[in-house]
Amino acid sequence: MRELEALWHDAVRALGGDHGPGDLADRYAEPHRGYHNADHVLAVVRDVTALAADRTGGERAVLVLAALAHDVVYDGRPGEDERRSAEWARARLAGLPQADRVAELVLATTDHVSDDRLARLLLDADLAVLGSAPEDYERYRRAVRAEYAHVTDEAWRVGRGAVLRSLLDRDPLYATAGARARWEARARHNLAAELSSLGDPP
């Protein structure tokens, strides 16, 4: 958890601020989080930093803060979680000129579609796990299922199948060239394999 806070402090300092992370680490340690936890956020920070290698230092700092904040509220309520996460970021960064920009990027994760060049980097990094090695993808799948342990197997099969199909229908899946080169082919393979495992071949 100290790594989360260190990344926050480094990014804020890069923007000329001294705003602390507040309860950032505590939120990502909440027991109901199977996948949307500190490990996920650290991976998003790593991947968005790699994708943004050619951006300015200020842009990278904004992206890191948005990555750190994007799942800070996770109660399993799509749309509401992202809105409250954006509000949290705006409040934590109050007075920093880039506070609204960070909040805008967090809000972009609501429907994962954006024409904003920085938002696209964040959205692609958030989906990088889809293009991971098979064993890592399986851990991701199990972790997400654990977050929906209250859902029956049949309801999960239907709901998860719809999500997988919506992702496979996106062409391309990733918005940026860097992400497509890194993850597109493997992500499509992983998604199709999981869909088939649900008895619903693509």
From TrEMBL:
Domain (HD) spans: 38-126
Pfam families assigned: HD (PF01966)
Which residues are the signal sequence here? none
Q: Which InterPro entries match?
A: HD_domain, HD_phosphohydro
What the entry lists under PANTHER family is as follows:
HD PHOSPHOHYDROLASE FAMILY PROTEIN-RELATED, PTHR21174
Name-wise, this protein is: HD domain-containing protein
